[in-house]
Amino acid sequence: MKDKMELLRLLPMFRDLTQEELEQIWGISILRSYRKRTVVFNEGSNKEAVYFILDGLVKAFKTDENGNEHIVSFLKTGDMFPHTGFFNQNPYPATAEVIVDTQLLAIPVRSFEQLLTSIPAISIKLMRAMSEKIRELQGKLQELTGNDVQDRGLLFLLKLAENYGTLRNGFVYIDVPMTNQEFADTIGSTRETVNRLINQLRKEDILETSRSGYVILDYDALKNWSHK
18, 49, 53, 98: least buried by Cβ within 10 Å? Predict the structure, then answer.
């Protein structure tokens, strides 16, 4: 395992803090490991801790009255969740589920609130993270309302490439394993529609799928692709 200070400095929220401040944070932190497809907490449950991803992937989603999932976001190494609901008794706003084996750093909510009041640098970074999350959700809402299903699917793939993709041998590898149903839940569509979109992209040698996610074979073609 990496040194505890090295682990904390992996997290943007804590990267620029002093040794003394990091020691304070480590003293109230709990390391937790989750196997893939394990729920960290459920929407509406009592908010007990704030989590930071040391390694892995997490999806946050809400469930409607019919039991359908609506994926809010995918969270990667370095991210924190939830971003809101501090200094009140509000429950968790969404369900969080790890989608690969994941290691998290958990800090009890009340202890984290004390950090926010005692270490201004953390408060500033939290406000920046919340602003970024608001911009992300506003952008997602604009995409959902301003584009048809096909365009939403293409934009989602491009966003996955931007946030999670790695370039190897001319291909973009997106190591975010998800089902076509989860893809559909993210863009507000159906599994059948996503199946057709993925199959069309595969037929034109633009995209391939794997157990670990997606491989973009031709990034420029994906950006310019339109249904024929």
Answer: 18
